[in-house]
Amino acid sequence: MKIVSRNEELLRDALSCIPQPSSRTSLAGCNRLIRFEDISAAAFKIQCGVQKTPCMYSRLSKQYGMDIYLKKEFLQYTGSVKERGVLYLLMSLPQEQQRKGVIVASDSNFSMAVAHHASELRVPVFVILCPSTAPARVRMCRDYGAMVISYGSTAKDAQLHARRLAQENGYLYLEEEDSAVYLSGLGTVGLEMYEQVPKLDAVIFPAGGHCGLLAGSAAALKHLNPHISVIGVESESFPVLQESLKAGHPNDDQACNNHHFYGDVSGVCFGNNSLQLTGKLVDKVVTVREEDILISMLRLLEYERATVDAEGAIGLAALVAGKLPELKGKRVAVVICSGNLELHLLQQCIARALTLDNRVCRFSLVISDYPGDMSKLLELLAREEARVLDIKQERTFVTSELFTVEVICTVETRDKIHTAQLRNALLERYPTAAWTER
């Protein structure tokens, strides 16, 4: 892939102000300044080990008034974009270290990517997890080929044990950070999108506590075309990146490392490299509500048949929430970076999203307990084309007249307009009908 740079100076200026960070792992030698050449080298080296994922035109484009292209990184083998940085990191290790092995201590997408690619490269890999880790995550790490060890009662216990094992046995302890090697691997997403979608106006990335993808890809995109807007999106509940940019250093006051819904975007694991690159090269960082993320997950499932987690849906959530009106009529790429959502959580998310989208509603009303009255209610719902999901009758604790029954009904509608029509029809027939507010 031949790429001609049009903005060498901008990237060089951004990197010139990045101080050398102190390493949080034993990869101190890898913490140097990221260059465009590093990203290009990473793209060449990992091309046979990761998917070149599609960046496809989305049917959501008409709904939001712009040409939307979705970069489907959740199609990677482990369901996460983290594979790019992990593979390049592992391939860059000295042969002696590859022979000894690596060790990680979390149930994140990063750890699953390490488990898979280390096994593929025949590097011994150990994953230390606390007993409270979801069984599905434990099983996946084992299936990818890692030796999984359960230890301690908290994630911190597992991390301390992993560090001790690394020191005693010569393993390399890895945790997600912002070494130049890791950022270069993640930055290959920017190269691919630039090649796949001509005349891009803007690219939207997840941000939050893990902004390596945003920083690395911004370095590539701004190097190639400084006029492309690079936008980061993080949760309103955990504005980690915004607070860090204001403070001028990584700030974990807003972090929440135990939030299962947000996963990798709720904690802080970036350093000065990522932060300085983001501050210099990223045009905008916006926040979105949890409700917007849930509806974004629903849109992706319905329109793209894509089952993604909060990290994967958060970029599109900025468009769902109308946070970027300046992109109307523009050509926009959105990175869908992760699809690792536990099944029980997926079920809860979709049910909640349908309610937020005014497509599942609940009402209660009191009718007489005589034959035929219930059938009249069901006939009304059928006439209004509402699908009954659940219906309950309460007789014992009804406080109104004798021989009446309280009916609590949950129904599914097409959209907000259909819900309003159903509500009007019910109130006309049953003036005392009460709707449960979401």
UniProtKB/TrEMBL annotation:
Its cofactor is pyridoxal 5'-phosphate. InterPro entries: ACT_dom (IPR002912), ACT_ThrD-II-like (IPR044561), Ser/Thr_Dehydratase (IPR050147), TrpB-like_PALP (IPR001926), TrpB-like_PALP_sf (IPR036052). The keyword Acetylation does not apply. Keywords: Lyase, Pyridoxal phosphate. Residues 362-438 form the ACT domain. This is L-serine deaminase. It comes from the Eukaryota. Pfam families: PALP. SUPFAM superfamilies: Tryptophan synthase beta subunit-like PLP-dependent enzymes. One of its GO terms (molecular function) is threonine deaminase activity.
